[in-house]
Design a protein that fits this description.
Distance between the termini: 35 Å
Structural class: mainly beta
Radius of gyration: 20 Å
Largest sheet: 5 strands, antiparallel
Length: about 375
Amino acid sequence: MYLFCIRRQRVLTLCLFMVISGFSACGGNPPLPTPIVGSSFAFIVTTDFQTGQYATYSMDTNQMTVLNYPIHSDATAVYDSNRGRIWVINRRGQDNVLMVNPGQGFQPTTSQWSTGAGSNPYDMEFISPDYAYISRYDRPELLKMNLTNGATMKEIDLSPFADADGLPEMSYMLLHDNRLFIAIQRLDRNNLYTPAGNGLLAVVDATTDTLVDVNPSTPEPDAIPLQGKNPCAGTDLLFQDGLLYVADTGEYGVLDGGIEVVNPVNLSSRGFLITEEALGGDLLDFALQPGKGYAILSDSSFKTLLVSFNPITKMVEQTLLVSEGFHLARIALAPGGDKLFVLDRNPSAPGLRILRTNNDQWETSAPLSTGLPPFWLAWVILPI
């Protein structure tokens, strides 16, 4: 959602050029160690909203490497475990996806495919080594792409789930058990992108590339109705312990959302695991592990904070970090769950913070510089 990004941009300065291990963020790229089978990396997309780059953090060597390969200033990334490749999603203004090869020093490849002019691609889910679904925020059709040549294989119409402006605002997706779940935000573009109603989860049968009608008793195709609004505005869907978890941000400045639980078998919502009211702010991102959760929130003054919470008691346990502005961008549990990675966009010292989850103590005394401020993180576990 671009209102989310615009608010960030107002409180951020332009690019800070940092030096990592003797290499300038504006100079040549440092050499990377040769990745080996089972190597784990955090692939971190960085941006000052004018230019974009990326950095990598090795879980094996605890080394941050700032890379100077240019990407779009509005980009995210996903990891394709089928091929052991990263796909950078260059969103509004570039409208393409770009393959990056971890096995060759995380260099961009020549595989850069258009998703359609003005389409604003948002997320990718990989059906096989050769095919992926791509959600497009500014089109009503879900795209199925051939990743070997960028050809369009199919477009699946999601306009039945749109609001009055004709666009469903499809955002992040999750593929589970041959079913693709797509967050439908339904935002009114004629009214500052405010929610036009409750959100939906559209469901596509990945074996037939057709919509699953959640309620066949009605004449029109139905998606899963959510209890919250504006799902997946700042983060993706989570699958854990047989359930889907959806971050409903709702309206900014109104505590009307929370983490919603969806049963992917009977295709229905179970309601909120925890509400924004209980968390104490607008929900921007979350992470879950057994018996414990973490969330990035925005308070009434649009400062961001990191809290831990108990999903059983539905209460906040600790406030772990309070930023000076709208700075905390994203959190992600490391493989194994022993560390929480926190992306901090504070213009005076942007970078990666690492929290030990066994005692909620900071492993980093200050952010590890990522060059440009960090925006997005994808985990890479190399199979090659």
